[in-house]
Amino acid sequence: MEYYSLTLCEALRLLESGETTSVALTQSVLSRIESVEGTVKAYLNIDEDRAIQQAERADDLRRQEKGGPLCGIPLAVKDVLCTTDFPTTCGSRILEHFTPPYNATVIDKLQKAGAVIIGKLSMDEFAMGSTNENCAFTIPENPWREGYVAGGSSGGSAAAVAADECFAALGSDTGGSVRQPASLCGVVGMKPTYGRVSRYGLVAFASSLDQVGPLTKDVRDCALMMNVISGYDELDSTSINTSVPDYTLALEKGLQGMRIGIPKEYFGDGLHSEVEAVIRKGIAMLEEMGAEVKEVTLPHTEYCVAAYYLIAPAEASSNLARYDGVRYSVRDTDAESLLDMYKQSRSQGFGDEVKRRILIGTYALSAGYYDAYYKKASQVRTLIKQDFEKVFQECDLIVSPVTPGPAWPLGEKSDDPLAMYLSDILTLSANLAGIPGLSVPCGFTSSGLPVGMQMQAAHFNEEVLLKAAYNLEQQVGIVNQKPVIGDAK
Amino acid sequence: MKITREEVQKVANLARLQLSENEIERMTEQLDTILSYVEKLDKVDTEGVPVTTHTQQVVNAFREDVVKPSLDRDAVLSNAPEDNGESFTVPRIIS
């Protein structure tokens, strides 16, 4: 057994017992990257020398018994999180040469916990996309099948974890960007409650929807990562000041009496039959373990794509106004006037999908259209949120697929923006409602593509998600199934 | 048509984007498809429904009005495409 294939918690145990060192773990992960990265293409930036230095320091700290909860563990983060040690490109030409002058709060927390940050992971430009094909640099492939999408927008994070190129990763989720790639790549991914994790230093896409979340090899690792990144931050005035439990303590409690709702709208037309079969089997397992399962309704589900694709672009059009070629970002130096400089810098720096969303958002907010589009969508958002509140009066957990189908070939939907948006239908509402959601591997299609189960709970009920996911994971028993990548052993 | 070429051009100008003829053509078509799709929201009765702009009941986050260290100027200027050592520089605005 190579070190890189261990889970984060297994690797920690070897460090704690003195059977291995952080340097050995880091070297193992770096050699794994060396052998599979040519196929997976998950990383935008790797700093091997710095990683080894950090690992040596972690080994010193551990010897002095000063190590934090992740001391010596090699991790990687989505390139949407500000890091002083690495450029932070957001997958965009416009930030190609940007190295932030400060760290995101979650990066400081990982470093304080002793993690070794080995690199930055690929993503759709400014986290806008469902396949990672909108990255201006390298586009990851699904470790389970070459030529297939890893999902998006945290595609690099999911692919790297699935391919054992790091022990865990951070992503960000604005409409499913952690859960969807986690499902397509067969790893665990959590979108915490809005306000659970600081957004300080998370480059903003849609501020009322964005949340940072972990992607991990199993549910226990997810709980441990949540322990490290959660909590109030005075630098993010939308983070919520409530205590953070030890999430790992929730795992081994049983499911006896847990009330699970199955939203009938999530099992409608367009759901892939094999995905449905895998999820139904998973639901039966939850029931066998003592959960009470019943059908529920989220009647405004059919409007969530329309509401989301007005609200998110509206917020994005405002947030992305800051890329003007003045303080950072690429500048067109040929422009003679300030206005031309703005326009040309932005037009050269942004890719198609980002321009499209800026245009939709600007239009939806513009005079004469505000009420019909942005305001209407924000009212429908209230109704979507109320749907969940009603269901959570009688259920502890909502269970469904994460995506209507398994991973698809690269290029298949990239010319049809609306088709791409519609593939997000099952994950968007958690962001609109601010509730936590998680994807846990539940099985495979007959051709061997992973299928994740989505679990959603009421605000700040991450423990319910982790408990249910852990129990399901034990029952499904596929944590040790790994993809065979390229020519790698 | 939900949106015309001219409207796309106007919105692009508001958003400080300069689109090529090809881009205007393509964006008009794609925005039209998307705006036709979102029209389904009209079917929802939202009479008297309040808007949700944030999902948590957070009001204003105040702090004590005390001076704290801020970022070092050189660090802030280090990513500037053009600067004069003290401030960001831009093309001449007043001729």
Question: Quick summary of this structure?
Answer:
The complex is a heterodimer of chains A (489) and B (95). Helix content of chain A is 38%, strand content 12%. Chain A has helices at 8-16, 22-40, 48-63, 105-112, 155-162, 179-185, 219-229, 273-288, 304-319, 338-349, 352-365, 371-394, 417-422, 428-433, 462-476; strands at 43-46, 74-78, 116-121, 168-173, 188-191, 211-216, 259-263, 292-296, 397-401, 437-444, 450-456.
Fold and architecture overview:
The complex is a heterodimer of chains A (489) and B (95). Chain A contains 15 helices and eleven strands. Chain A is an alpha/beta fold and 489 residues long. Chain A has a domain of 249 residues: Amidase signature (AS) domain (Amidase signature (AS) enzymes, Alpha-Beta Complex), CATH 3.90.1300. In chain A, strand 7, helix 8 and strand 8 form a beta-alpha-beta unit. The model of chain A has no long low-confidence stretch (mean pLDDT 96). Chain B has a domain of 39 residues: Histone, subunit A, CATH 1.10.20.60. The model of chain B has no long low-confidence stretch (mean pLDDT 93). The interface between A and B is large, with 72 and 50 residues.
